[in-house]
Specification:
It is a single chain. The chain is mainly alpha-helical and 73 residues long. It has one domain. It is built from four helices and no strands.
Length: 73
């Protein structure tokens, strides 16, 4: 399966509320790293910004020590 196909499945699972906290964090880290978070519909950008502001993911899309130390959401 291509990365794009896997991403579509991940986005569908996220929107359906079928992802755990670790999976959501991994998804948004990827979306931030690739700058896709800022080009998808508004909720993705707002959620990405909230995760950055909370210190769980940095501006480069890396999951932070804080997220790891609190057991990730």
């Amino acid at each position: 399966m291509s990365r794009m196909s896997a991403l579509v499945i991940d986005l569908q699972q996220y929107e359906a509320g079928e992802m755990g906290g670790d999976e959501v964090l991994d998804l948004f880290a990827f979306l931030i790293k690739t700058n896709m978070a800022w080009t998808l519909q508004g909720d993705y950008g707002r959620t990405a910004r909230a995760l950055i502001d909370e210190g769980l993911i940095d501006e480069a899309g890396e999951i932070t020590f804080l997220a790891l130390s609190v057991g990730r959401p």
